[in-house]
Amino acid sequence: MERLYIICVEDQKEVLNTISEQLSHFEEYVTLEECETANEAYDLLTEIERKGGQTAVVVSDHVMPGMTGVELFIKLKSDSRFEGIKKVLLTGQATHADTIDAINKAQIDFYIEKPWQSDTLLEKVSILLTRYIVETGLAYEPFAPVLHKQTLFDLLKGR
Q1: Which of 10, 50, 56, 74 has its CB 3.0 to 4.6 Å from that of 132, i.e. a possible disulfide?
Q2: Model-level pTM?
Q3: What CA–CA distance (Å, rounded) separates 119 from 145?
């Protein structure tokens, strides 16, 4: 079974811990990594890719010192090594222009406003993990317990 990664990016340690705790549901099947800056996340993504690993989902805060979450996602979108990575933007301070940039320039998959419900985050990450696995042609069976059943059914039906 391929080892996949989910990367959480948040500059506030308490919020980062909350995200990781909520996503620990996936930990038996994927590796969860925490980063406190977008630059740290980009370096980690590069290292994972260099070692032959695959990052399936990045969950990032928007407003952070240095590179923002949207800037990170734009950087990932423009780098062919990271095609296919699914992106979730968490934010409590985005302007209308930020939201438009996130959708148009960074091609985010989901946008979740803070504070969020843990069920919402889990569902969105499950949907994106399912899409990543099916779109990259990985065997989905080993990941089945954490995949989004309706998304999996729809994707397999469409093949």
Answers
A1: 56
A2: 0.95
A3: 16
